[in-house]
Amino acid sequence: MLKRLVVLRRFTYAWLASLTLLGVAPQPEPSAEPTPNVAAERLFERAKAAWRARHDLPYLRYGALIRYLHEGHVFDNWWDAYFRTSDGALSLMRLVDIDEEKRRLGGVPFSIFGFKIFDTNPDAEAIRLDPPRLAPTSSFGVTGREVRPGASPAPLPSPGASQLTPDPQATPLREITHVEIAPREYQVEIVGNEQVMDVATIHLRLTPLRDPDIHRLRDLWLDPATDRTVQLDVHGILNGEPYDKVNWTVRYVQLDGRNYVQQIIADEPLRFGFDTVIPKFEIDLVDYHYPTDVPQFTFDRPF
User: Domain of 92?
Assistant: First the structure.
């Protein structure tokens, strides 16, 4: 019996070795999901609940500023913005000073193979800016998928479209139980207590368990007294290069009991093309107003 076991074990080892040599070695079992940190998970759920419980006003009006630094010069670009909370519609109108635009757009840059040699106007606008199409009420993924500013609302069914209607004579099915499945998106850990913008916060570290390009949150600072998100870190914004390739710090301001985006700062330099590096870049949303009504055409015009 012992000889049989020895022979069988040798045969097993030889079989595994042959699979390895052929490049078809047995794959290891997938690692189990990390054990949840109960205290950290509860804090994260409280932060989610605070976002979901908010009741926003129908319209917002505010100023949007993009400020960046390039070769020692600070460039400011302003927009007058309207936001409709029902569907995330956003209207941005660039505020332009004619004399300032002439100064900033003048001059001719000279480059060879994408590398700039000199510029006849060093004060000229260094990059082509994308409008700050960011919802001022955005949680940047704390509550999952959000309405993207400018996205069209779901179309209503046409009058002639066939629709399933319940049979009034049918016997309704009895519900045995109700189950909700909420898969974990992050491994959440408590980093510690930190003072952020004069608020005593709890710092949470978030590590994506899957799809890091979709689950972009990395850190969150929570006010434990109100469950309000005071600050967060997110990997990528605006869904376009180079904005979606770097980490950003988002800070919030509380106005009339609601959380609004106040400042979004790039934590790393932004690279536009081969030869343009922006070492500092930020977006500021300021001067919030709450109009009771905004004409429909405000959101229909291009921006």
Answer: 34-142+184-300
